[in-house]
Amino acid sequence: VIRAKAVSAKEVDSGNDIYGNPIKRIQYEIKQIKMFKGPDKDIEFVYTAPSTAVCGRLLDTGGKKEYLIAGKSEGNGKMHITLCDLVSTWDSLSPTQKKSLNQRYQMGCECKILRCLSIPCFVASLDECLWTDWAMEKNNVDGRQAKHYACIKRSDGSCAWYRGMAPPKQEFLDIEDP
Question: By CB distance 3.0 to 4.6 Å, which of 1, 35, 50, 71 could disulfide with 79?
């Protein structure tokens, strides 16, 4: 899990499929800003499929957008990402998510987050937190729990949602709001 900027992209061959046809990948050269979880070596390149139709992730290579990228590291300065991996612009993260990345999420490494796809759902053990955004917020994977809570281990060994910071108050209404 890293915070990074993509600075360039090029299409590269990454071996052949079972029929001998070349497999193309996009190789993003990145500037790593921070490693939250991963190998001791900085990530230099992120690889993905060449289009979203085959589960590729497209990154802006202008060097201005910062991303939070969670992918699969090879440990040799290379990472692979797909549509199933978490890739978000840094600016789209809530203040709680940013603070939790730096301070809280590591406190929940021993906890398991269970997705609740429809109500009712239950936890099976004390080391689980029930994630209900999908079921409670109309199939929203980026809902209230995801934006404002962290699943952390408590002093008694159980895991629970922790609300570390209230969402910012909106002081001005958008002109388009009714």
Answer: 71
SS3 100: helix
Q: Tens of pLDDT along 71-127?
A: 898 878 899 999 888 899 999 988 888 888 877 777 777 888 888 888 888 888 999
Does the structural domain 2-90 have CATH classification 2.40.50.120?
yes
Describe the chain by its helix, strand, coil percentages, rounded to 5.
Answer: 15, 35, 50
| Ranges in the chain annotated CATH 3.90.370.10 | 94-174
Classify residue 111 by burial, with Cβ atoms within 10 Å: 0-12, 13-18, 19+. Answer: buried
Domain with CATH 2.40.50.120 in the chain: 2-90
| CATH code reported for the domain at 94-174 | 3.90.370.10
Question: How many helices and strands, by DSSP H and E, does the chain display?
Answer: 3, 11
Residue at 95: amino acid letter: P
Q: How far apart are CA 76 and CA 81, in angstroms?
A: 15
